[in-house]
Design brief:
This protein is α+β, with helices and mostly antiparallel strands and about 180 residues long. About 20% of the residues lie in helices and about 40% in strands. The protein has three helices and 14 strands. A five-stranded antiparallel sheet has the order 13-12-11-10-14, with no helix packed on it. The chain has a four-stranded antiparallel sheet with strand order 2-5-1-6, covered by helices on one side. A three-stranded mixed sheet has the order 4-3-9. A hairpin with a 2-residue loop joins β12 and β13. About 15% of the residues are buried.
Length: about 180
């Protein structure tokens, strides 16, 4: 029987626990042949908090997990699989119209799976919370305590170009993202 991917709503912030509960129930009820993988797409993000660089996992789709489930000829989930997923603690309901779960399309699954594989391979990306025209204050360096406006953000290098007024002239200054704070 073919398997399709379905999206299931879970309690936001409890995605890991809901995934763990579902995987445990699948093993407990001997359903691995009917319910395949359970996936929680996430990426590693590096951010600076209180002057300390931290790497953390960030959910790409908070409040949702993906489940690969065997379907019948009509493309419907068998009742025992449907109830096993729905009755799992922390799991809400399937994404779809009414009581009919809608399977993800093949191209959607391929994109999500390839993004998940890339996220595992690549180094954590920087999380820079600044945008163009944000007002900032410089915390460190030769321009400490100067105020400015963000002109450009380069997340690949972790740099921010800030326009600072020095002696009445607007001057662009390139700084690392952790050297500035939002006003």
């Amino acid at each position: 029987m073919p398997k399709n991917w379905f999206v299931v709503r879970v309690q936001s912030g409890k995605e890991d626990q809901a995934k763990k509960n579902l995987e445990h129930r699948i093993k407990l009820h001997a359903f691995p042949e009917k319910i395949g993988r359970v996936m929680l797409p996430s990426e590693r993000v590096t951010e600076l908090r209180s002057g300390i660089r931290r790497t953390s996992e960030r959910k790409i789709y908070p409040g949702y997990i993906m489940v690969e489930i065997e379907v019948d000829e009509a493309g419907h989930i068998p009742q025992e699989s449907w109830f096993l997923v729905r009755e799992t603690p922390g799991v809400g309901d399937f994404v779809g119209s009414g009581l009919t779960p809608v399977a993800l399309r093949d191209y959607e699954v391929e994109r999500i799976l390839s993004d998940a594989e890339k996220a595992e391979e690549e180094v954590p990306r920087l999380k820079i919370d600044f945008k163009m025209n944000d007002g900032v204050k410089i915390k460190e360096g030769p321009f400490q305590n100067f105020d400015g406006v963000v002109e450009e953000v380069n997340p690949a290098k972790g740099l921010i170009k800030v326009i600072v007024t020095i002696f009445g002239r607007a001057t662009p200054v390139e700084l690392e993202y952790w050297q500035v704070e939002r006003i």
